[in-house]
């Protein structure tokens, strides 16, 4: 059972009508956004934090409290102009996996986290017609996910991380957009790398409307980059970028492309289903 502040509990018992919902969104880069359902700003008396009126920027469209270990969830959506969120920040993934806190308090005696209602993680945000939409994932939902290492033929390290140990700095190149098909496909004909060199790698725009935004490369061939997801803004000829090569996580990539077999984290000789399904003598 939740233990509430005595003054707050007394107000609830008296049937007060001065309740306000508050949402705090803490991005991974440390930026914090605060909203309240009240029609005026609320300055928390205990922390000094200011929660601004929602005005359609962070509508809480549904709240469900699960029984037992069923995950609580609610959807957040709102207008970009009302929330102060920028299209570029959302498209760049700055809000992905942000921490979200939902609580209730008294607007005439506001205290941060007075009555905690939910705590969890912001899912991947989507942009639709000038609005953003995202799903709240409660902490209890993580108990329903598989944990631990999965053994398989491919490497489970990320290229350049502490387990892989490949130094990406000298492998990072720069260039500029020379031809554009759409927001996920462009060509730089000066690139001389082999086909698929950048497949699975990362493109980061360094100028233009998408400056600072990164996208993973789906395929690369003859200077043509095709990305997994579109850039939020139109590309322009002359936009500059940096690119890091990718890894398909196969043994041959580690051996032939990076000379890094000693740090390969897969199990390429692990027997598969074909071995399990063999008959005797096969």
Task: Explain how this protein is built.
By secondary structure, the protein is mostly beta strands. It has two domains: 6-143, Pnp Oxidase, Chain A (Roll), CATH 2.30.110; 169-260, Beta Barrel (Elongation Factor Tu (Ef-tu), domain 3). The protein is built from five helices and 17 strands. It has helices spanning 6-13, 80-83, 87-91, 251-257, 273-276, and strands at residues 19-26, 32-36, 42-43, 50-53, 59-60, 75-79, 99-106, 115-122, 126-128, 131-138, 173-176, 179-182, 185-187, 202-205, 214-221, 224-227, 240-244. The strands form two sheets. Strands 1, 2, 3, 4, 5, 6, 7, 8, 9 and 10 form a ten-stranded mixed β-sheet that branches. A seven-stranded antiparallel β-sheet has the order 11-17-14-15-16-13-12, with no helix packed on it. Strand 7 (99-106) and strand 8 (115-122) form a beta hairpin. 24% of the residues are buried. The model is unreliable at 61-71 (pLDDT under 50).
Task: Give the structure's gist in a few sentences.
It is built from five helices and 17 strands. It is mainly beta and 282 residues long.
Topology:
Blueprint: H1 6-13, E1 19-26, E2 32-36, E3 42-43, E4 50-53, E5 59-60, E6 75-79, H2 80-83, H3 87-91, E7 99-106, E8 115-122, E9 126-128, E10 131-138, E11 173-176, E12 179-182, E13 185-187, E14 202-205, E15 214-221, E16 224-227, E17 240-244, H4 251-257, H5 273-276
């Amino acid at each position: 059972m939740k233990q509430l502040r005595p003054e707050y509990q007394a107000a609830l018992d008296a049937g007060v009508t001065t309740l306000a919902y508050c949402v705090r969104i803490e991005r991974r880069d440390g930026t914090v956004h605060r909203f309240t359902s009240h029609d005026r700003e609320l300055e928390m008396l205990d922390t000094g934090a200011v929660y601004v009126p929602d005005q359609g920027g962070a509508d809480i469209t549904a709240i469900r409290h699960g029984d037992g270990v069923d995950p609580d969830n609610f959807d957040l959506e709102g207008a970009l102009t009302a929330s102060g969120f920028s299209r570029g920040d959302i498209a760049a993934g700055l809000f992905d996996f942000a921490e979200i806190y939902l609580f209730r308090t008294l607007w005439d005696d506001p205290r941060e986290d007075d009555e905690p209602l939910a705590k969890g993680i912001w899912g991947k945000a989507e942009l639709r017609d000038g609005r953003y939409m995202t799903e709240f994932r409660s902490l209890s939902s993580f108990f329903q996910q598989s944990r631990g290492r999965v053994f398989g033929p491919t490497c489970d390290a990320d290229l350049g991380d502490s387990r892989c140990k490949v130094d990406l700095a000298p492998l990072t190149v720069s260039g500029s957009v020379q031809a554009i098909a759409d927001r996920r496909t462009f060509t730089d004909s000066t690139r001389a790398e082999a086909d698929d060199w950048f497949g699975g790698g990362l493109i980061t725009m360094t100028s233009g409307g998408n400056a600072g935004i990164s996208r993973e490369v789906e395929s690369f061939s003859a200077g043509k980059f095709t990305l997994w997801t579109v850039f939020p803004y139109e590309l322009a000829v002359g936009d500059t970028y940096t690119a890091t090569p990718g890894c398909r996580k196969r043994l041959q990539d580690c051996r032939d492309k990076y000379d890094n077999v000693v740090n390969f984290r897969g199990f390429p000789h692990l027997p598969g289903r074909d071995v399990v399904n063999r008959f005797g003598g096969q």
